[in-house]
Specification:
Layout: E1 2-4, H1 7-19, E2 24-29, H2 35-47, E3 50-55, H3 75-84, E4 89-91, H4 95-98, H5 120-123, H6 127-142, E5 145-150, H7 154-166, E6 171-176, H8 196-201, H9 204-217, H10 223-234, E7 240-249, E8 263-271, E9 274-281
Parallel strand pairs: 1-4, 2-3, 2-5, 3-4, 5-6
Antiparallel strand pairs: 7-8, 8-9
Length: about 290
């Protein structure tokens, strides 16, 4: 395992690997790695010769009122997990390496229209510009590669895929199934903020998705009916505050009137100050159930 912190050294290492005809896999993260991230690293290690995990808490994607300093950090734990899952490199730059002029000195922003203007983009207006800018920068630093993202953040996956397509980046974006706890809760770095009561109630999110997929497979095609199924289940959690439920086209993220097999169910619910996302195909809640 090599832990690199400078752009020039990781770029040189990966350029050298590609010169030897080695394939490169990239797993971009903000650290605080869990088994969901581990599944991405394992997939990358199975498909690529060299795997690099990036660990960078990106200030550009934190909006007003979102506590950047409180975001969990455990670089040594991240390195250990990445190594155990088959990564050979961790790229962990500090903020001054990524943004030498400081975050206020970043005058270039990468944005993707339409896909970012609803759902998470409506709730966090500056979020996706920060995501796209840092991901574009990482892809430029790391060079041609396969990049692995979890489907749990489905809108992010769609946005990054569109950005790569539009800008002809030499990157293949690969979406990987959501990893869940045995009770169905999608793994997320945010889960550590849940109180015991909220943690117990949060299982209502995956239950709502399962209710809707069951209804779809039983013949329900009305998007509004499927959304109401999810709303009704989430209402059973006394402390859950629903942000949105939606039935959308998987590629466009536009709401549909009538669901088909390519539709996606999206949901966001807050428990206290912790906001949780999840999603599923209308054909079923996929993803490994593992700890």
């Amino acid at each position: 395992m090599q832990v690199l912190t400078h752009v020039d050294e990781v770029r040189a290492l990966l350029d050298g690997a590609r010169a030897r005809s080695a394939s490169v896999g990239v797993v971009p993260t903000m650290g605080s790695l869990h088994r969901g991230h581990a599944s991405l690293v394992e997939r990358a290690a199975a498909e690529c010769d060299v795997v690099v995990v990036t660990v960078f808490v990106n200030p550009l994607q934190f909006g007003a009122g979102e506590d950047l300093e409180a975001y969990p950090r455990d670089l040594q734990g991240d390195v250990d997990l990445a190594a155990a899952c088959g990564a050979g490199v961790v790229f962990a730059p500090d903020e001054s390496e990524m943004y030498p002029a400081g975050r206020e000195g970043v005058l270039t922003s990468v944005s993707v229209r339409l896909l970012t203007e609803r759902f998470e983009g409506a709730s966090r207006p500056t979020h996706f510009a920060g995501v796209c800018t840092v991901v574009a920068k990482l892809f430029n630093i790391l060079g041609p590669a396969r990049a692995y993202f979890g489907e749990k953040d489905f809108q992010q996956l769609a946005v990054v895929t569109q950005m790569v397509r539009d800008l002809s980046m030499p990157v293949e974006v690969i979406g990987c199934p959501t990893v869940r706890e045995p009770d169905g809760l999608a793994l997320s770095s945010r889960n550590v903020y849940l109180s015991p009561s909220h943690r117990s109630q949060a299982t209502v999110i995956s239950a709502a998705l399962r209710d809707a997929t069951t209804a779809y497979c039983a013949g329900t095609r009305s998007a509004s009916d499927l959304e109401q199924v999810m709303v009704d289940r989430i209402a059973s959690a006394p402390d859950g505050v629903l942000d949105y439920v939606a039935v959308v086209g998987a590629r466009t993220l536009e709401r549909v009137v009538t669901a088909d097999d390519d539709s996606r169910l999206l949901v966001a619910v807050a428990f206290g100050s912790t906001r949780l996302l999840d999603n599923a195909s209308v054909l079923g809640v996929t993803g490994a159930i593992r700890v």
